Structure formats: structure tokens, C-alpha cells
Amino acid sequence: MKMSPQGETPIWRRWGKSFRTGLRLWHDLLRFRQDRVVAGRYRIIRKLGSGSYGTAYLCRDIRSGRRCVLKRVYPLRGGRKRAALIYSMETAILRRLDHPALPAFYEQFRYGEHLCFTMEFMEGTSLDRLLFEENRMFSEKASLHLVLKLLAVVGYLHACGIVHRDISIANVLLHGNSIQLIDVGLSRELAGSHPDDYDPYDIDADDPSEKVLRRKIHVSSDFYAIGHLLLFLLYSTYTEKELTPGSETGEQSWEEELSLHPDTKKLLRRLLQTEQPYRNTGELRQEIKRLLPHLR
């Protein structure tokens, strides 16, 4: 048998650990496969997606007949202790929320070794899908109207002492004329936090500054994310033009590429924190309302 250098984990033990990990993953797949009934109540319709903190499934509650989202929490880093902490934080935040644009909390439970909870399934369509699958276009005015609606939801969170930290085109949904905001897995309580605080498990040493700004436990992280979301909307009507003098490489900033009202550009710079950042949602909403009548 091949021996490992002194001080290293024996190779047979490493193989055994890999085997057990693979066996557990396979077991997880079997327990959460399509049409499986979880906890005697939730029949899995399909997997919705996976992230750094867990996996979400669309289910039907066989007792009530309603559709819901089942999430099992297993962060990629931090082990079981980290999983229990994330689970308790996310469920505690969901229990506090009471807003039609945010998913309602249903129940939490263990399913074998799995930490699970269920919540409302929001029926809207993500901006991600609207932009990149349905090729929806948003004018400058329509984009700011949408952000104004989103700010009502974000303002509610901030008033509750919560920062979302994961506002994106994948997590913002349109349902008719309404906006919905999902996935509070990265949300954190603002109480006691410093403007430069972030969760060390969310950030690696080589992560770009953009990710660090998004993960701060401060309202500025939500404004920064809204700035990027707004750029996605504005670029939906962008058509590539001839290169301007001095831009032979084709690398131009959004300010050079997008034809926007000067006040919209200033608003974006403040959201992206290249100018004085916004202090609260009220200040930003007031600025958008003042700007909208000047747009076509």
C-alpha cells in the first residue's frame, strides 16, 4: 500500500473522506429529486437554483395545494456550525418581514440532517429573464420608474434594520405592474454594524472591490447593487455606435456609451459611489421623482 509522507493524512483516509462526501451528495440528490415528497408534505416540482448558501426547490404543499419554495441550507464554507448560523439568521429575517413584495415565511424543519424551510413562491418573472431571454427593452424613464418601485421595498427593509446585500436582475421580479424582491440569504441585521463591516465567509482575499462593496453590511451595498441593476436596464436599449476619437480600443465607460440625461448620470455615479453616496432611500426616491418629468 502506498504510504503518505510523515505528518500528512494517510491516503486511504483521504480516499475514504472523498467517498463519504460523494455518497452524501448522491444521497442528497436522491432525497430531493423531482416528485419526491419531503417531510411528508412538500412534493418537489423542480429545482429552482443553487447558491453559495443552499439550494431552492419549487414544491407543492400536498396539504394546502399551494405552491411554495423549499430551501435547504448548506453553505459552501464554514461547515455545520456555519450552516446552523446562516439558517437561524435567514429564517429569523424572513419571520420579521411583512410586505407583499417579499416572500412570506411558512415553516422551518429538519429533514434528516438537512436544515430546511419553506416560503411563498413569488409568481413574477426575473429581470434577468426579461432582459436576456425575452429581449425586453427599458427606456431611461421606464428604468427609473422601475427603480423607484424597487426602492419602496428596499426602504421597507432598511426601516426594519435589514440590508439585502444581493439585489440583482436575478432577484428582482416583475409581476404585472408590481416589483418583487426575493432571496434574503445574504441579508443581515444593520444593528451594531460598522459601515465597513462584511461577513468574512462572503469575501476572499482576491475578490474584486466590486464584490466587497456589494457585501458590506451597510445600506450603501444595496445602493451600489441598484446602480448596477439600473445599468443593466439602461443597456437594454443600447446600440453600438462608431468609436469616438481616442477610444480606438473599443473600451468605453458607460458614461461614454449611454446617452442619458445629465442628472441620470449623476444619480448613477452616486449609486456606484464615484460621487457622494446616497444616505437613505428617501433621498434617492426624491431625486428620481424630480428627474422623471424631464424624461420622455
TrEMBL record:
Keyword Nucleotide-binding (UniProt): yes
Residues bound to ATP: K71
UniProt keywords, alphabetically: ATP-binding, Kinase, Nucleotide-binding, Transferase
Entries under PROSITE patterns matching the protein: PROTEIN_KINASE_ATP, PROTEIN_KINASE_DOM, PROTEIN_KINASE_TYR
InterPro entries: Kinase-like_dom_sf, Prot_kinase_dom, Protein_kinase_ATP_BS, Ser_Thr_kinase, Tyr_kinase_AS
MF term (GO), any: ATP binding
Residue ranges occupied by any Protein kinase domain in the UniProt entry: 42-296
GO cellular component: cytoplasm
Name of the protein in its database record: Kinase
Lineage: Bacteria, Bacillati, Bacillota, Bacilli, Bacillales
